[in-house]
Amino acid sequence: MRSWYCAVAGLAVALSGAAVLGQDYVYIPNDNENSPGASNNAFPFNGGSPMRVQQVFAASQFGGQSGAITEIAFRVDESTGDPFSSGNIDTEVRLCHTSVNPTAMSTTFASNYGSDVTLVYDGFLSLSSSGSGFDIVIGIDDSFIYDGVSNLLVEYKVFNGAGTTQFDAAGTAVGEGGLSTIDRLWAFGAEATTGSSNGDDGYVTRLTIEPAGGYVLTVRGTCPGTLTIEWRGATPSRQQGLVFGNSQGSTIIPNGPCQGTMLGVQGQVRLVNTFSTGNGSGSVNGPAGTSACGHYLQLVESGSCNTSNVRQIP
């Protein structure tokens, strides 16, 4: 990425404190955000053949958070997983609200659907992991808005034989499910109509939820490589500054046109690009080098000095 220091746009910055801002991530099960799940799981991304898998997440895991789900992420299993890189995984992903509880999933896939089944990904996935953290990321369309109060169903259809590694999974580690917060249904064959819930409860999952409405930044792609920067909810025709920081935190703009504005990034904060928002939404593409991976981006708008959410570079 190009590195223009904030002075280029009159945004001279000074670091101030290190208060970490709230993230727009939901970890399911909540208890496994920072600790491994009790099991590991191959299905569907290490199953070696076409598969259909549904997972149901209890509403209690979302803490009332609602908005557009923009990413689904996993991590490798701490004991049986390895770093990997795998491409051309022919995949469909669907989301819906459901009245079905994790502990009472039907063995008929269609019976677990709610009324708003939404196709959010249809294409060939490239998945990879360095073996650390939730770095196996699927960027999905932001067309599904989670309501914050319903159980959520996520469905994966894999049409070819994906081979990755064992992912971290929830469960009881004795080959059976048992959690009230998450469960799965699986079958060999992407168009299977019935399946089995035997085994663990499925992947420990991180969902990225962007607030419905508002000034929202989304970052897609893999790093190093080409990133797609998307935004919505900006003021039409206003200039936007894309700001980079090493970590989330607090940075005050001490002078200039946006004096006093609090940014949500800190550590070597710099401006990496500027662009006009047109009608308030759009996207740009650009390269990201190794030194950018895992760090953070945010938009700040000229005139209004509005700031977007903070997004991590995947």
In short:
By secondary structure, the protein is mainly beta. 0% of the residues lie in helices and 43% in strands.
Task: Describe this structure as you would to a colleague.
With 314 residues, the protein is mostly beta strands. It folds into two domains: 6-23 and 213-312, Immunoglobulin-like (Sandwich), CATH 2.60.40; 25-209. Helix content is 0%, strand content 43%. It contains no helices and 22 strands. The strands form six sheets. Strands 2, 5, 8, 9 and 13 form a five-stranded antiparallel sheet that branches. A five-stranded antiparallel sheet has the order 7-6-10-4-12, with no helix packed on it. Strands 19-16-21-22 form a four-stranded antiparallel sheet, with no helix packed on it. Strand 14 and strand 15 (225-232) form a beta hairpin. The two termini are 14 Å apart.
Strand content: 35-45%
Q: Give the helices and strands as they follow along the chain.
A: EEEEEEEEEEEEEEEEEEEEEE
How many beta-strand runs? 22
Rg measurement, Å:
20 Å
* N/C terminus separation: 14 Å
Mean pLDDT: 85
Count every helix, treating DSSP H or I runs of 4 or more residues as helices: 0
The low-pLDDT segments are 1-23
